[in-house]
């Protein structure tokens, strides 16, 4: 929920400060929407959230990390989900199901997630920073693919699979942002139908 300061309303005495990464990210997203990403400072975000600058950096290393929310935790869950899949689940099917679960959002989070992706895909300042997060995401995919193919995760096939899957996801996100009445998971499922074709002919798929 957006804070009073983020919405331009007077703050009330004793206002409860944010207490989680998700709350701080939501507060920042409201400010970014109002003023533009590059125009908002860390000090403004901290003030709107009712915390000090030092506390802000306990949550996020930089302003550029805010649109990602609690990405590390979600990525750890995706990694754990993949590790829990039985060997009988095909490589392509396992990765596609993990992507859908990774992107399954509570209804109240969807508007914030749309804002996040608009920023991450549209703000030049963030695009370079995003490569680090995409690399972390691809490592999770490549680790699972390498395990299934009995190959080092850094070798060509696991890396190609990770890049291909990321491309399909980003294509789905771009389509989702161009609509207002389509569910993200539905568009992802349509895009991921292409994934088995990408892997066609590889052992273990």
Automatic annotation (TrEMBL):
Keyword Transcription regulation included in the entry's annotation: yes
Keywords: DNA-binding, Transcription, Transcription regulation
Alphabetized Gene3D superfamilies for the sequence: Homeodomain-like (1.10.10.60), Tetracycline Repressor, domain 2 (1.10.357.10)
Signal peptide span: none
Start and end residues of each stretch annotated as Disordered: 1-20
DNA-binding annotation, residue ranges on this chain: 41-60
Pfam family for this entry, one: TetR_N
Keyword DNA-binding: yes
Residue ranges of domain HTH tetR-type in the record: 18-78
Protein name: Mycofactocin system transcriptional regulator
């Amino acid at each position: 929920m957006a804070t009073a300061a983020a919405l331009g309303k007077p703050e009330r005495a004793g206002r409860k400060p944010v207490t989680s990464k998700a709350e701080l990210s939501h507060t920042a997203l409201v400010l970014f929407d109002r003023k533009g990403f590059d125009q908002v400072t860390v000090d403004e975000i901290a003030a709107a959230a009712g915390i000090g600058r030092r506390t802000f950096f306990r949550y996020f290393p930089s302003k550029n990390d805010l649109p990602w929310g609690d990405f590390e935790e979600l990525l750890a869950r995706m990694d754990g989900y993949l590790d829990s899949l039985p060997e009988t689940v095909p490589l392509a099917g396992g990765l596609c199901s993990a992507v859908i679960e990774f992107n399954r959002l509570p209804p109240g989070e969807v508007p914030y997630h749309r804002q996040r992706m608009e920023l991450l895909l549209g703000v030049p300042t963030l695009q370079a920073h995003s490569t680090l997060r995409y690399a972390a995401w691809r490592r999770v995919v490549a680790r699972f693919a390498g395990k299934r193919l009995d190959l080092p995760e850094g070798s060509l096939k696991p890396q190609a699979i990770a890049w291909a899957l990321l491309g399909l996801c980003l294509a789905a996100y771009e389509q989702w942002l161009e609509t207002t009445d389509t569910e993200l998971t539905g568009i992802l499922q349509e895009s991921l139908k292409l994934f088995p074709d990408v892997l066609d002919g590889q052992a273990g798929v």
